[in-house]
Amino acid sequence: MFRSRFLRSFPLRAARSGFAAVGLTGAVGAASLAAPMQVAESARPPAPVRGEEIAFLSLPRLHKKAVVREGVSPRILESGVGHYPSTQLPGQTGNAVLFGHRTVGAKPFADLDRLRRGDVIDVRSGAHRYRYRVRSLRVITPDRTDVLNPTPLRGGDRRTGSYLTLVTCTPRYSNARRLVAIATLDGR
């Protein structure tokens, strides 16, 4: 079963940060009643470390599976799929953006242009499984950074759903444009 160091180490990281101790000790009173709120606000998992495995991606139509690592350095993309660090993690509200090559290294997105509206994209992160459905494929210029926005290809920081955006170069053997597949978390 897939388990990354990031996912396995969450309880240890939480204990080191004092997360696990909040609300467990101390005097009863107003100060201890506020502790549960602090726990809830800080219950977010720690950010993954560059290069560590954070998920496993499956593209059934393309018969492709790949490990997703944190970061988009040349070394990470040579070996597979990279998660753009400032974007959400899969399953969270907002936009999880994944990059991969079409013609270099492991070529996880070699046939990304064969995806169609409604196709399934599965992401497994630890014990969690997320199913996304492709909503659109677009070709954009490399300077379009709005693909990283919480709602992809739209202005602003407003999160309007849970998105998974796959990005690769197009046409094949060129980096003139970007092929973008935008999927939404399937609520079924």
From TrEMBL:
GO molecular-function term, one example from the UniProt record: hydrolase activity
CDD domains: Sortase_E
Catalytic site positions: H101, C169
Keywords: Hydrolase, Signal
Keyword Transport: no
Leader sequence segment: 1-20
InterPro entries per the UniProt record, alphabetical: Sortase (IPR005754), Sortase_dom-sf (IPR023365), Sortase_E (IPR042003)
Keyword Cell cycle: no
Name recorded for this polypeptide: Sortase
Organism annotation: Actinomadura rayongensis
Lineage, broadest ranks: Bacteria, Bacillati, Actinomycetota, Actinomycetes, Streptosporangiales
